Amino acid sequence: MKKRIAIIGGGMSGLSAAAHLALGAKDTFAIEIFESAAFAGGQCASWLDERGRPVETGIHLDFPWYHNKDALFAAIGHPLPLRETDGNYYVCNGATDRIDTLLAGKSVFKTLFGLATFPGLSPWERVQLTVLTARILRMSDAVAERYDHVSVDDFLKAQGASPMIRQQLGLEAVTIQGLRPDEASAASFIKFLRTMYGSMGLFNTTFFGAPLADALIGPLVEYARGQGAKIHLESPVAAILPAETALPRLVTAQGEEREFDHVISAIPGYAVPRLLPASYRKWPLFANLAQLQETPIITLTLWYDTQVFSDGNVYISNRDPATGPIFDAVADKAHHWKGWKGLSHSGSILQVLIDAADDATPLSDAELIAKTLVDLGRFFPACRGQVPSSSQVLRLQGTYCGTRLGYWSRVPRQHETGLAGFWLAGDYTAGIYHYGMESAVISGKAVANRILASMNLPTQEILKPRYLPFVAA
Ligand SMILES: Cc1cc2nc3c(=O)[nH]c(=O)nc-3n(C[C@H](O)[C@H](O)[C@H](O)COP(=O)(O)OP(=O)(O)OC[C@H]3O[C@@H](n4cnc5c(N)ncnc54)[C@H](O)[C@@H]3O)c2cc1C
């Protein structure tokens, strides 16, 4: 008889778990995915608006160290359509209203040159930055996690970084941790920077050549269904009833109680405890998870009739409260989706991301759009005087856990729960740093491996970034 598997959450982690179980042992599992939304994908979702045009949750950059994700799409026979950027980061500098270029990319030499020419720094500060980066590359996970209760700002101060270095590196906190440098834990910052500067990639940072649903989620859904998995959409799980010795059960929104051999939670960590019986919520594992918080993110999609961006690169900013623009990342999806079926739009489709959005949340949609248009005009001359023909504001919910101070001491980097057949997947449980598509894929693969191993079936290798020899990771 097939092993009955329930997966709660149809995002990248849940779909990865389903695909890796099917890849690991064909016809061995009866898989059911329960997804509360009307479509799969979670934070990586895209859908069509009322006019049939694609809308994504927000900018998704694919990094060159995402080997497990690439391996998964190759294994299901669906290599990803990628649109390579030139690898550089273009930084909208609020103090000057100019765009500074930070050179980076697949070539280690270019990245080193980027450090040596880091915008806005004096020659002495560039030397300081290179020494600091070398020090970070030598930090192991254990050392990084010692800085869990230290903010990115304080960490950089303690490392002797000048105010300008602190301001420039604070970019990473906003765009990667979704938090301001004074509230983000330094541990994630160290882990991300170590991988960005300490690993070799075969390609530059990329975007997908199609909306997320077509590029990423659709192929996984199709593969899972093709292997017999059932995907229940608009089917939130109301409760999980695990036990220490009995098989786990779950309760559907309709109140139906169902037993499975394995239940995999693939929802954000902070959402797990509220599904559990009160007695388990007191367990340290779940009590800690309950303290995590999502990070506030707003995404605007602006449709212009004319082209207002000249390339498909990503433009970032540190959202400096005094001078910075309201957005922390913007890119023209029309460049990435060019040639993708059915999209006949000849103008720009700007996706504008506002991470660490606490300050922007009180603004109305009209105010957000107005402020964004002013700020785009500051940096992109072609945007001046142009008004998008339509715009959409998404106030995202259910996003990844912000890595506030103490994050790493609360988050379980494990899949076992101590309850029979009840597993944790999700971007927060695995991977190189705290979030991301690769972490989500790894988490699903790792849980699939645990289940395969429990049945004495072969497991699938978890691939690591190709670190330079002196990197301590
Ligand atoms: C705007 C934005 C931009 C991002 N940019 C990048 C990027 O550039 N690069 C990168 O690598 N990563 C990026 N990420 C992060 C990446 O999208 C996530 O790390 C990843 O998608 C997490 O996948 P997941 O499956 O762990 O969780 P989720 O995607 O959150 O999936 C969880 C799923 O569970 C469902 N669910 C929740 N509760 C229940 C319930 N009770 N019953 C049933 N279903 C439930 C949700 O609807 C959701 O579909 C970004 C995220 C956001 C929000």
Describe the structure.
The chain is of the alpha/beta class and 473 residues long. The chain folds into three domains: 3-44 and 211-292 and 403-454, FAD/NAD(P)-binding domain; 47-84 and 204-210 and 294-395, Alpha-Beta Complex (Polyamine Oxidase, Chain A, domain 2); 107-198, Guanine Nucleotide Dissociation Inhibitor, domain 1. It has helices at 12-24, 67-75, 108-116, 123-137, 141-146, 152-158, 163-177, 186-198, 212-226, 278-281, 284-290, 333-337, 365-379, 407-410, 437-454, and strands at 3-8, 29-34, 46-48, 54-56, 82-84, 89-93, 98-102, 206-208, 230-232, 237-241, 249-252, 257-259, 262-265, 298-303, 315-316, 329-332, 349-354, 390-395, 422-424. The chain binds flavin-adenine dinucleotide. Flavin-adenine dinucleotide (FAD) binds at residues 8-14, 34-37, 42-44, 57-61, 236-237, 266-268, 271, 297, 299, 353, 396, 398-400, 426-427, 435-437, 440.
